[in-house]
């Protein structure tokens, strides 16, 4: 049995599908069990249940640290020996001087809590998800230009299904204790380049407007961290591609185009 927290979310839902496809039993943790599909081998839970391993998803809304501390305490009490935590690229390994509101500082505190938990641990640090582009859907549907605070900064944009595939390997295989993997797609691609790919797939011109990063361009709960992140990307500071996905899954991670060809037509057709 594998316990997946954040099971209704971007990586958690892909991970649940991946584990079930491998014939494993999965407990999907959520605050709303009605959101968990009815599938053989899958049970919904609102609390930590005994399992062989737990996928620990810190929600993007940046829950207080005690959210993770409570989950780890409950995991220990339930006899779960192994935890795989989703983190983010650029999280420092050691003590650092990042401001407290920085995404890396927040993930650092969560990683440190896990490292000190006494449980077997592995950390996954993915780069920007391909699914972030779905936030452009309302503007694309309405024919409005896409506001781009990331300039021409390139990133190794990753398909969340590849993060899930790595998580499934690490949750179920051995030899990953005390290891940190940095996960990216196979190519560096900027926002204007992603939009050029989408324009081809959707068969319509897409206009992009460049803007200096500013908090009002992002959802309020992540505004500070996202503004700092956009400045970094704009300056070329997240132009990173790693071999970790292929090493761990023996398959090449998806290009942005391959992910978009699967995901985007339904987004626009379903409008
Ligand atoms: N997006 C990126 O490009 C990116 C890149 C690197 C790292 N990350 C990291 O990925 C993580 C998740 O990001 P995401 O946007 O993809 O989130 P997500 O996995 O789509 O959603 C978070 C999940 O957590 C649960 N959740 C939300 N708020 C909660 C709360 N207050 N208490 C308990 N559960 C809660 C929700 O489950 P229920 O509603 O079912 O309870 C939801 O399924 C973040 O830590 C982020 O830093 C993201």
From TrEMBL:
Signal peptide: none
Limits of the NAD(P)-binding domain: 6-172
Domain of life where this protein originates: Bacteria
Organism: Paractinoplanes aksuensis
InterPro entries the UniProt entry points to: Ergot_Alk_Oxidoreductase, NAD(P)-bd_dom, NAD(P)-bd_dom_sf
Gene3D superfamilies reported in the protein's UniProt record: NAD(P)-binding Rossmann-like Domain, UDP-galactose 4-epimerase, domain 1
Stated name of the protein: NAD(P)H-binding protein
UniProt-listed Pfam families: NAD_binding_10
């Amino acid at each position: 049995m594998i316990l997946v927290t954040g099971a209704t979310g971007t990586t958690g839902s892909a991970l649940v599908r991946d584990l079930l496809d491998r014939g494993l039993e999965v407990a999907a943790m959520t605050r709303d069990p009605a959101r968990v599909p009815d599938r053989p081998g899958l049970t919904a839970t609102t609390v930590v249940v005994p399992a062989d391993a737990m996928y620990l998803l810190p929600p993007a809304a940046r829950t207080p640290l005690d959210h993770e501390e409570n989950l780890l305490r409950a995991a220990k009490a339930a006899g779960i020996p192994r935890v795989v935590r989703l983190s983010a690229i650029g999280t420092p390994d050691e003590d650092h001087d990042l401001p407290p509101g920085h995404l890396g500082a927040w993930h650092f505190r969560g990683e440190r809590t896990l490292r000190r938990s006494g449980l077997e641990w592995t950390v996954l640090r993915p780069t920007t998800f391909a699914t972030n582009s779905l936030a452009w859907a309302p503007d694309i549907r309405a024919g409005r230009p896409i506001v781009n605070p990331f300039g021409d900064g390139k990133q190794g944009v990753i398909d969340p299904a590849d993060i899930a595939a790595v998580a499934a390997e690490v949750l179920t295989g051995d030899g990953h204790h005390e290891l940190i993997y940095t996960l990216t797609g196979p190519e560096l691609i900027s926002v204007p380049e992603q939009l050029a790919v989408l324009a081809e797939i959707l068969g319509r011109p897409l206009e992009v407007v460049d803007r200096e990063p500013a908090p009002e361009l992002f959802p309020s709960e992540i505004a500070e961290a996202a503004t700092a992140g956009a400045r970094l990307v704009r300056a070329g500071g997240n132009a990173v591609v790693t071999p970790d996905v292929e090493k761990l899954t023996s398959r090449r991670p998806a290009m942005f185009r391959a992910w978009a060809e699967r995901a985007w037509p339904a987004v626009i057709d379903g409008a």
